[in-house]
Amino acid sequence: MAENGAPRGRSTRMTGKERREQLVLVGRRVFAEKGFDMTAVEEIASRAKVSKPIVYEHFGGKEGLYAVVVDREVSTLLTALEESLSDQRAHPRMLMERAALAFLAYIDENEDGFRILVRDSPVSHSVGTFSSLLTDVSRRVEVILARQLRLHSYPIKDAALYAQMLVGMVAYTGQWWLETRKPSKEVVAARMVNLSWFGLSSLEKKPELRGETKG
């Protein structure tokens, strides 16, 4: 049997669609292992057991393949997060729990994809970077927070700031958890929500630093 479960032989030649999918999967693994800069078309072709021109034929080069891989991962993660936040009737804390668990579940089930997302992207690839992904997620969380702030007569303008803080906490805790895998994702999600929720539930309307400041 050949790599990716495809048996060798002329009778099992892949269709164009099947070959493209194989190259995406192989490229995903190599990008996760080595990063964009250290990945070579030669290695992708070698692992897929094809010639270099086949890779260029389907994607135009390493950059094109990388863009497809990243766009797929972004779509997968955003879909999971949007589904976790879709029930507008749910209590805000429940939504936070679902979103945190959805993020960690994505990491658990798509380790290669998440490693690609958190690496630095090539300069030519301006979308799909981890920072732009977090910006998209933050916008969705901002809507939820704004609704809750309004209900409690807090400044709506703070919703964007708090959304960035919350999403950043979940995302970077997720990076740490990827390497440790302990405790379970359910425990990690519960702890993150515990910290953020009780902080939000006791917000001051006009917080100020308590220590002495110079200037």
UniProtKB/TrEMBL annotation:
Top-level taxon of the source organism: Bacteria
Keywords for the protein's UniProt record, in alphabetical order: DNA-binding, Transcription, Transcription regulation
Molecular functions (GO terms): DNA-binding transcription factor activity; transcription cis-regulatory region binding
DNA-binding region listed in the record: 40-59
Protein name listed in UniProt: TetR/AcrR family transcriptional regulator
InterPro entries: DesT_TetR_C, Homeodomain-like_sf, HTH-type_TetR-like_transc_reg, HTH_TetR, Tet_transcr_reg_TetR-rel_C_sf
Keyword Transcription on entry: yes
Pfam families, per database record: TetR_C_46, TetR_N
Stored Gene3D superfamilies: Tetracycline Repressor, domain 2
Organism: Brachybacterium paraconglomeratum
HTH tetR-type domain: residues covered: 17-77
Keyword DNA-binding recorded: yes
Stored SUPFAM superfamilies: Homeodomain-like, Tetracyclin repressor-like, C-terminal domain
